[in-house]
């Protein structure tokens, strides 16, 4: 890393520090705490551009050439874009986290390098920004096309190919990275070594990556024993992953800055709950979803997936459930999870039914249809009606409005800030 690159990064870090000290950042932080602790019905607004980052901050805008410098530069610029342009309710923090570098062997015992459709674009889950494509890597090209899929589980006997992943902590590489970040940023930002915060398991997504989603739909009727056996393997594998993280001290109590569920932030006073710190899962938020079972009825959903998810979920102090799957007909099962605290209400869910069932028992995490922001953004009358309908029906919920899954912003990055401004206006008008 050249001296010029260090100067670029340090200047960006000073700007992030300045933003973190603005009075509104403490107000935003307090808002999240009240919201996640179920003490407020004021709607919370968050934006996670995800795929659209490749239009907001393309790699050719970076000034640094060194690999580590490029990553630091990109993440700092992205934080500034959130604070200066998006201006949602996510605070800019002075904390700069260097995450422990953790890998595992994967689920395929015969081919650890096997990848299927879920792995189209390499991404990083940042504790402030959420999922971001690794735009800073030289040669990275954002892939907007469909992904190839090859099933590897074709017969019940093939299930033995699946294994519990074995975890490796790359301590030497982690400490080398930490040293660089401390030297460059340590006198400006609070540089911290941090363990794994985002504890997510997707049992059906993982299994269908190897079996195939269409085939799993047939298996419900033709191979139910095989499907149950597959889920038991997934359960054992995820239990093993969690146990390895604990044994190797790779976790970080996730009650402050951090991405939560399928959208949201971790801030809560209700964690930690028990002695043991990072060695006790009762001190953590967890998250799972099974959106692959969107078209499956409530009883079969519970029988084939949710009963296994619950065995994992009930180990956590707080838990988030759901992503894109409509959940209104399955809430009776989800609400029975121990310590359920955040439930995703997808763009295709019945807003009113979910509102009545969820009440103020958990966070009501609504995901507006991202295509409306992408394709209908200039139709303000339509958008106002759409959002005010939701705001009216959820006025007594602990609701949050999470814009995500935006693969594009039509090369109009300012749109995200305009959207937040409009949404806050509609919130004020609805609650007046």
Give an overview in words.
The chain has 432 residues and is α/β, with parallel strands linked by helices. It has one domain (3-431): TIM Barrel (Alpha-Beta Barrel), CATH 3.20.20. The chain contains 14 helices and 13 strands. Strands 1-13-12-11-10-9-8 form a 7-stranded parallel β-sheet, sandwiched between helices. The protein has a two-stranded parallel ribbon with strand order 2-7. Helix 9 links the parallel strand 9 (285-288) and strand 10 (318-321). The longest helix has 24 residues, at 224-247. The chain is globular. The mean pLDDT is 95.
β-strand number: 13
**Gyration radius over CA:** 22 Å
Question: In the CATH classification, which architecture applies?
Answer: Alpha-Beta Barrel
CATH topology: TIM Barrel
H/E topology pattern: HHEHHEEEEEHEEHHHEHEHEHEHHEH
Distance between the ends: 53 Å
Shape: globular
Largest sheet: 7 strands, parallel
Level-1 CATH class name: Alpha Beta
Mean pLDDT: 95
State the share of residues found in helices, binned by percent: 40-55%
**What are the low-pLDDT stretches, counting only 5+ consecutive residues below 50?**
none
The number of domains: 1
